Amino acid sequence: MRGTVDGLILRETAVGESDKLLTVLTAEYGRISISAKGVRNIKNKNISLCRLFTYGNFEYYEKNGMRWLAGGSVNDSFFGINSDIEGFALASYAVDIAREITGEGVPAEDILRMTLNTLYAIEKKIRPLEVIKGVYELFAAFSSGFAPDISACRECGARTSETMFLDVMNGSMLCQECMSKRRAFQLSEERTDEYLTASILFPMKPSVAAAVRYVAEASPKRIFSFELKEREDVSDFSRLGEVYLQNHLERGFDTLEFFKTVSAAPDIKG
Ligand SMILES: [Zn+2]
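Above: inputs. Below: predicted complex with zinc ion.
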């Protein structure tokens, strides 16, 4: 049986002398594997179609329960990503997350669209990379069913306070006053509230809380269109995305460590 599908390459694995096994994210079938013969040979006509981050139209045939590449064309190579190590590291992390949150045979239209928008944002540098990172991490957590209720404090209903606390595992929020009351209660009773001790409570300034709310509600097309003015807010937002996603997926990513390493490196351009 033959078929064609549009998809984004999330991973390429070298096989044998000159072949690749591609992990491809598609809207219709979610994450699929396509075997591509001979595509590491520089004379192969499909060489540019079979690169990491390529969004292409893949023609394949099915044999022995596998998809084999027959041909195809490139829709967007996101080639500019490769010119910048930080952008490359972040894009690698994003496609790792995409691989983690998608399944074989589970349609993934929204995740594909959002991942393409994210690669575009990285390539064109439409926002600081830390902002793009935080947005994608939050999106990934929310679309995996871990959307928090952050409309108001869960205890008293306050919409805002100087610092709001995101209860990461419980997906809810506490205002400063309710947080202080809880702490005072713990101290006066000389006991520890087991529930609160086990929680991860992430302090957020109102500007950061507003950004998280925005990401939760925005369409993929508009999801990067918000402002974080202070440098500190950008770092907090990025850190929050990371903590939130990692605690829900219960795993870390080597590509995230790679991104942090290259982001922290001194800027040799001065
Ligand atoms: Zn409250």
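The mean pLDDT is 92.
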